[in-house]
């Protein structure tokens, strides 16, 4: 009875299974995705072996002793193979997922919560973007009342730049263009504020001169 066990373990530890494990880990070192697939396959094979052991033990008799030992050896060999494969598989599993599994819940709930959180953050970001767009429109309307010619020229430049950007720029370059337009707009706004201050100072000087 001890002979088959020892022989099977020898073949599992130093024979073909070990060589296959070494070949698999070599491939896995070059391809993380392939390594993950190997681990998944090993887990599935282990589950199958456990099911076979359950069937053997549940209907155990004298004739089942040898098949039982063979399946135990196969399970030990597969677990050893799984450990070797897992050493090359660097995957970070969120603690929340493990807690859900321990509680007997569906781990997909974690994915759902993450998606809902992303949606909420996206709505907040969209609200901020809409607020800046509204502020920009309001400032542009105010500037148009005071400097209609300059604002019209600005809009023409913006329209021409948009046409050129749509024709030759990629999406990334388009984002850079939008940032450039925003910078130009704020520079124009600063210029407007400076001109307003200079205008007020000049008016004050004229008033003081008339009073003198």
TrEMBL record:
One of its GO terms (cellular component) is mediator complex. Keywords: Activator, Membrane, Nucleus, Transcription, Transcription regulation, Transmembrane, Transmembrane helix. One of its GO terms (biological process) is regulation of transcription by RNA polymerase II. Residues 1-15 have a biased composition (Gly residues). It comes from the Eukaryota. Residues 1-21 are annotated as: Disordered. It is found in: Nucleus. It holds the Pfam family Med10. One of its GO terms (molecular function) is transcription coregulator activity. The keyword Coiled coil does not apply. The chain crosses the membrane at residues 177-199. Component of the Mediator complex. Belongs to the Mediator complex subunit 10 family. Component of the Mediator complex, a coactivator involved in the regulated transcription of nearly all RNA polymerase II-dependent genes. Mediator functions as a bridge to convey information from gene-specific regulatory proteins to the basal RNA polymerase II transcription machinery. Mediator is recruited to promoters by direct interactions with regulatory proteins and serves as a scaffold for the assembly of a functional preinitiation complex with RNA polymerase II and the general transcription factors. PANTHER family: MEDIATOR OF RNA POLYMERASE II TRANSCRIPTION SUBUNIT 10 (PTHR13345), MEDIATOR OF RNA POLYMERASE II TRANSCRIPTION SUBUNIT 10A-RELATED (PTHR13345:SF14). This is Mediator of RNA polymerase II transcription subunit 10. It comes from Citrus sinensis. The gene is MED10.
